[in-house]
Amino acid sequence: MQNNDLSPNSASQGSPEGLFIDASRGVAGDMLLAALVNSGISEDVIREPLAEILPPHRIEFVTENRRGIVGLGARVTTLEESPPHRTLPDLLKALEHPILSEGVRQKAEEVYRRLAKAEAAVHGIPEEKVHFHEVGAIDAQVDILGVLLAIESISPRQIICTSLPLGQGQVKAAHGLIPVPAPAVVELLRGAKVHSGPLGRELTTPTGAALLMSLASEQREAPEGTLLNQGWGFGQRVAPEDDPVNGVRLLRLQGASPTLGDEVLRMETVIDHISGEDLGGIVDRCLEAGALEAFLTPIQMKKSRPGHQLTVLARPGDETTLCAALHRWTGTLGIRIDSLRRSVLKRESVTIEACGETVRFKLAWYGHDLISSRPEQQDVSRLAESRNWSVDHTRQQLASAIDAYLAKSGQSRKSTFFGESQ
Q: How many helices (H) and strands (E) does the chain have?
């Protein structure tokens, strides 16, 4: 799950502060798109940009009644005579259209790269060589970009989803019959909370998995806040009467926290048999293995021996891997593990031209207030060295550049703070 907000400063007065996506019965890109429109988002937000960006196609939202619940189904028809099998570079090229905001472009690129990485891992080929069959089709591109455009239009502060169902059985794909959950879906859902769900069919598609893994900041089984309304998006398959309805329910809420919250694990062990030089290397290895943070604290152990406490913060899905690594790398006999909740500011990475160089900045918001805009330290050091400037002078020059960028994009800093923790 990610910390995400497509357009943190463009929310209109009264827009929802949170989206809760109930995908416990299954999720696909068209279901998400239909649920967003059914919740009250204008179809024009989706239709007009996609008509300019993508090859000829037709989008239709069909009212359906499933088990007495009225919702929408999204149907996309390609008008291309011979649609090609597209690769990752093909999909990314379509994102260069000026009608797309930077937030949507970056998030769409993240979704496409997640899909490419999963397919590459399954097929054992480079990401750029992956031929997207289902995902490269126009309907999948409409689903992905349509969902992102719809979400940008309401600018939610937080997106939460439920545990995701895996299903069971087999499904027909471009390569023939493959098992459910599809291997690419398994790759995409690494680290996510999942459950079995109704058996005998596909429940979570690659497109649905990639979207939720890119958009949701947290997984939870119930929402918090004041309910505004709901939207239902139905899949094309009609579930058997004994199975839950094949639909995604989206809840729009007010009163969500202005910061994003998620769960992390704290893993701790004490060490007095390894030198400081070797311990430093272990910290680096933890970070390379996926830890959010790793650090050492000097302590005094039994019999007055000096030692260190190694603390590692990790995502719940990385617990087994990091725990095994710590035992192997340190030889420690025991590791304490506890669960923590953390408050996390919404973040965005932007790249701008400053001082004749390309510089990356981290932006962070508390609610709708931009309170931090800092250049990447590597870029600061690189620019200071190339210009023979001091680091302090380099930061001053970059501060002017980021202020100009923020003013041009209609944003402003409320305050600036220093220091960041995972």
A: 11, 20
Instruction: For 45-85, write each residue's pLDDT tens digit.
Output: 999 999 999 989 999 999 999 999 999 999 998 888 777 77
In eight-state DSSP terms, residue 416 is -
**Which domains, ranges and CATH numbers included, belong to the chain?**
18-257 (no CATH), 261-344 (3.30.70.1380), 346-408 (no CATH)
Name the residue with higher pLDDT: 176 or 97.
Answer: 97
Residue 87's SS3 state is: strand
Nearest 5°: phi and psi at 242? -80, -10
Per-position b or e across 295-330, b if 16+ CB within 10 A of its CB: ebeeeeeeeeeebbebbbbbbbebbeebbebbeebb
What is the pTM assigned to this prediction?
0.66
Question: Quick one: which of 15, 26, 3 has its CA closest to 243?
Answer: 26
From the number of C-beta atoms within 10 Å of its C-beta (0-12, 13-18, 19+), residue 178 rates as: middle
Q: How far apart are CA 299 and CA 313, in angstroms?
A: 19
